[in-house]
Amino acid sequence: MKALVIDSAASCMTICAKNENEKVSLSIDLGMKQSKKLLPAIDYVLKEVELAPKDLDYTALCSGPGTFTGLRLAFSALKAIELAHDVPVYGIRTLDAYAEPFLGFSSPVVSVVDAKKDQFFVSLYNNGTALLESADTNACDVCSEIKKHGLDSRMIFVAGADAKIFAEKLLSIEPTLQLACFDEKIDVSQSLFNLAEKAMALGESPLKDYDGPLYFRKSEAELNLENSAK
Fold first, then answer.
1. Per-residue pLDDT of the chain (230 residues; tens, 9 = 90+)
2. Which one, 72, 93, 104, 172, has the greatest CB density within 10 A?
3. Is residue 14 within 8 Å of 26, Cβ to Cβ?
4. Of 32, 42, 131, whose CA–CA distance to 84 is shortest?
5. Is the peptide bond before 65 cis (omega within 30 degrees of 0)?
6. Are 195 and 187 spatial neighbours (Cβ–Cβ below 8 Å)?
7. Phi/psi at 177 (nearest 5 deg)?
8. Are the C-beta atoms of 117 and 217 separated by less than 8 Å?
9. Residue 66: partners with Cβ closer than 8 Å, 6 or more residues away
10. Contacts of 97 by beta carbon, 8 Å cutoff, 6+ apart
11. pTM of the entire structure?
């Protein structure tokens, strides 16, 4: 299939295009400059696999949780392609995408994005089933969930852009945990391709025009506005 995917949930944004068996990806970690580089990056990866936006069968993105600005950038770019060329956009939950490479193993999986201030967005899976899904939580509560489900004696995979940070937090609370840590070097773009095509095969609908990023808390700007109004 011919497709374009974007992971913009963490500080390092990844854009990847594939044309059947050919695939090219580009990572951008430039802070506020990402907004200026996203469209040229999309143009670059598409040209490298000899595609134009009109040739795409679908696009997909990490729909959240994640950084407010990054998620909005990806949604804007792919919805523009949808509007111009009628290419469907599939939204994949960020934590599902980060966990996907490991869900076929027998070990439990913790998928994580750092939400700052000692809070994390976390999903916990066992045997491919979500025991805790996209929770805005902390390491202590996740340790409690791990123990509640009797997983504390097993090897646990910790995946996602902020896996190392979270694994260290878990071990500071419960040093006996057995953790295997996988960070952002995992190819999330392949997970987006896999999950989007699985959704298509199951007949699931792409994003609607009004669908936006999945936010699990208010932005810093919204909180500051509320505080100033009090």
1. 999 999 998 888 999 999 999 999 999 887 767 788 999 999 999 999 999 999 999 999 999 998 888 999 999 999 999 999 999 999 999 999 999 999 988 899 999 999 888 999 999 999 989 999 989 999 999 999 999 999 999 999 999 988 999 999 999 999 999 999 986 567 799 999 999 999 999 999 999 999 999 886 655 554 455 456 55
2. 93
3. yes
4. 42
5. yes
6. no
7. -65, 145
8. no
9. 8, 9, 10, 94, 113, 121, 213
10. 7, 62, 188, 191, 192, 195
11. 0.89
Q: Are 120 and 112 a contacting pair, CB within 8 Å?
A: yes
Q: Token pair for residue 199?
A: 């959704």
Tell me the residue type at 98. Answer: Y
DSSP three-state, residue 140: helix
Distances (CA, A) of 214 to 9, 61, 133, 155, 186: 11, 12, 13, 30, 22
- Beta-bridge partners for 44: none
Q: Look-up: residue for tokens 């997983």?
A: 151
Q: Please give the single-letter amino acid code of residue 20.
A: E
Give me the amino acid identity at 102: F
Strands in the chain per DSSP E: 2-7, 13-19, 22-28, 58-64, 89-93, 109-116, 119-126, 129-137, 155-159, 178-182
